[in-house]
Specification:
With 82 residues, this protein is mainly α. The longest helix is centred in the middle third of the chain and has 22 residues. Helix 1 runs antiparallel to helix 2.
Length: 82
């Protein structure tokens, strides 16, 4: 009987830079319409902030729209061990 593999808590917790930027960008995309409703005068600023976070999420390593995970079929998208 084989022993279960021990998972690294850092890489299985979603605390890598890609996950954090994707979470913030997703939150801002959902909050954007509410902000536009209450603060219509600041539409361009809010749109710029959302676009900036989406760009940051896309450019965070690994570059692209996929969140890294250890069982990815794409070698460049696998989590890196420290």
């Amino acid at each position: 009987m084989s022993e279960p593999t021990k998972r690294d808590p850092y890489y299985s917790s979603g605390l890598d830079i890609k996950s954090i930027t994707l979470n913030i960008a997703s939150f801002l995309v959902f909050i954007f319409p509410i902000g536009c409703y209450f603060y219509a005068a600041h539409f361009k600023l809010m749109l710029f902030v959302v676009a900036l976070w989406l760009l940051a999420a896309y450019l965070a390593p690994p570059v692209g729209f996929l969140r890294p995970h250890p069982y990815s079929d794409i070698p460049a998208n696998r989590t890196k061990k420290a």
